[in-house]
Amino acid sequence: MTGTRAGGRILSALFVAGLLAGCGPRGDRDGINLEGQSADQIFSSGQAALDQDNPERALRYFDAIEQRYPYTLYARRALIMQAFAYHQAKEYDKAREAAQRFLDYYGGDDDAAYAQYLIALSYYDQIDEVGRDQGLTFQALQSLRTVIERYPDSEYARSATLQFDLAFDHLAAKEMEIGRYYLKRQNYTAAISRFRAVVEQYQTTSQTPEALLRLVESYLALGLTAEAQTAGAILGYNYQASPFYDDAHRLLTGRGLNPDVTGDNWLASIYRQTVRGEWL
């Protein structure tokens, strides 16, 4: 995973640097004996706990470094590792809090990009189900965009770009889910508004071909043949190899119609723009 690689990279940087801090004389309140251990040793114990898939225990070590060795490089690294460990433990709010604290204190550090990416990832990892709160998806998009725009040359920008596209597709999928719900219940006007949103607002996503097919279905059901034909024409022009186009073509020809630009409607305007190489 990206987070694990980053955790290893942070450790490597520490070991290469060879920085040592003073010794902490006491055990901590969680029952972990830290007496006589250096910051380097405590940090290593935290990393070992992560390697053993025990982020809760790792957090005790990283927190101890912050408490015992403040203002050291180890404390700085421990803070970013806290954010990572909270994320591994699926405590996303705390992961964001720790990552934001790192950015507030060490905004110019090399790991600032990773901290920003962890904030975005904490939202992104909660949007795997279409039926969930779409507010998380919007927050993920905003945070991923921040990574892309603020740290374009970082190793996280590429991952953020891919995840941004997937999150954007997720929003379109939600529109499609609602549109299909209305279509199934023959509420064609409401269905059309959802499919139109996909075509106009999420046109670069994988949901667009199906949205155009469902527009053909919905407009045919309402007897609006010009709109249905134009939707079919757009589908044929952009996605002729798609099975959705085959279905749309079959629906139209079954009514004695062809995919063609007819009339002057919002779909006709989109068709003219796509032919000119301008999508909206």
From TrEMBL:
Organism superkingdom: Bacteria
Record GO cellular component, one term: Bam protein complex
Domain Outer membrane lipoprotein BamD-like residue range list: 38-231
Localization per record: Cell outer membrane
Keywords: Cell outer membrane, Lipoprotein, Membrane, Palmitate, Signal
Alphabetical list of InterPro entries matching this protein: BamD (IPR017689), BamD-like (IPR039565), TPR-like_helical_dom_sf (IPR011990)
Similarity comment: Belongs to the BamD family.
Protein name: Outer membrane protein assembly factor BamD
Organism of this sequence: Falsirhodobacter algicola
Gene from which this protein is expressed: bamD
